[in-house]
Design a protein that fits this description.
The chain is an alpha/beta fold. The protein has helices at residues 14-24, 35-54, 69-80, 96-107, 125-130, 154-164, 185-188, 226-229, 237-248, 256-264, 292-300, 320-323, 328-331, 345-366; strands spanning 2-3, 62-66, 87-91, 111-115, 136-140, 169-173, 192-196, 207-211, 271-272, 282-286, 304-305, 334-338. It starts with a strand and ends with a helix.
């Protein structure tokens, strides 16, 4: 099988897996008092410091390890959506872990605003800035869309928001940005940055949250006081070490030729959502009059694994993000292709041909 769904998850690298196994030997609880536990604690601190340094974090900032990016996103929202007389701003293109949490607060009477998207899935910055007023407490905008690859100018958004009011908290879900963009946290200026290991060839079940000013963060999970009393629960030392190795091996990869090979070798009519301003590792392409799920299984039978959109939305029965930027007739026929290291340009050409054939066959079948 050739895997073209790397926006959903990536294969753990050999080096990260070896690091996980090696660190598993240091099985001691980092919170215990004997010397062996101190070694486990040291592994965690080394990973934390390595990642903060690599991402050029602000002085006095920190990073906590979480169970997932979903937890990290929830932690930020639950820490800062606290008053009904304040406004909380999000894009309509947020990952479900942001969108559904914000919607829950909105349904409970909080002033939550979802800003509309441009045609490629990026947030409409003009509409966002019009929402700024003295009641705004939090702005959370995804860095790179998990649906379309659209890149939001987080530095510019943060600068404009902070120029309006320096006390507004700015968060970005940066999960899809690592390995695609050069992330400099000090330069971005955000208060929070969410990360996940399994999107960069690390293990599942481990995420992280960058916190620029720890004194402003209210813990989401309380208990034994681990992670500087910011996230309780016994630390997953092997996963943390494996995550560190995935970050050490992280390189910005150019998939523009892969993307072009798909587009050059596909025949038939479609709507391309992922334009040339989007991250080149994701293609969101929509076909009228077909079912994306059926096309997915037709391609699977030929040895190609693709997506139909965010895996976190696959059970919802609709695509919330795409419904705001493409016509209703196209939403059901969405295919998301996302690249990783294991596929070649030739593989992309062959996938495009198989995709062309699948769409043609489907249309012929339903039009009989």
């Amino acid at each position: 099988m050739l895997y073209f769904d790397n926006a959903a998850t990536t294969k753990i690298s050999k080096a990260s897996l070896e690091e996980y196994i090696k660190a598993s030997e240091c099985f001691f609880n980092p919170s215990s008092l004997y010397a062996e536990s101190g070694k486990a604690k040291a592994l965690i601190e080394d990973a934390r410091n390595q990642i903060l340094k690599q991402l050029k974090a602000k002085p006095k900032s920190t990073l906590i390890f979480t169970g997932s990016a979903t937890e990290s996103n929830n932690a930020v929202l639950n820490a800062h959506i606290t008053r009904k007389d304040k406004k909380y701003i999000f894009s309509a293109g947020e990952h479900s872990s942001i969108y559904e949490t914000a919607k829950k607060y909105k349904d409970n009477g909080y002033n939550v605003v979802f800003v509309p998207l441009n045609k490629n899935g990026s947030v409409n910055i003009d509409a966002l800035m019009k929402e700024l007023d003295n009641s705004v407490a939090l702005v959370s905008i995804i860095y790179v869309s998990n649906e379309t690859g659209a890149i939001n100018d987080i530095k510019e958004i943060t600068n404009q928001v902070k120029d309006f009011n320096k006390n507004i908290i700015v968060h970005t879900d940066g999960v899809q940005a690592l390995g695609k963009l050069d992330v400099n946290l000090k330069d971005l200026g955000v208060d929070y940055f969410t990360m996940s290991a399994h999107k960069i060839n690390g293990p599942k079940g481990i995420g992280a949250l960058y916190i620029a000013e720890p004194n402003k963060f209210k813990p989401f999970i309380t208990g034994g006081g681990q992670e500087m009393n910011l996230r309780s629960g016994t630390e997953n030392v092997p996963a943390i070490c494996s995550y560190k190795r995935a970050m050490q091996d992280l390189k910005i990869k150019d998939y523009s030729k892969h993307k072009q090979a798909i587009l050059d070798n596909f025949s038939g009519d479609y709507v391309l959502v992922s334009d040339n301003t989007c991250a080149d590792n994701i293609i969101s392409i929509c076909f009228k009059g077909v079912r994306g799920e059926t096309i997915l299984h037709m391609l699977e039978s030929k040895g190609y694994l693709v997506g139909t959109g965010s895996a976190c939305n696959s059970k919802a029965g609709h695509n919330r993000v795409l419904s705001s930027i493409v016509g209703k007739d196209y939403i059901e026929g969405t295919i998301r292709i996302s690249f990783g290291d294991d596929v070649t340009i030739e593989d992309c050409k062959n996938l495009a041909l198989e995709l062309s054939n699948a769409v043609k066959e489907y249309r012929e079948r339903i039009n009989k």
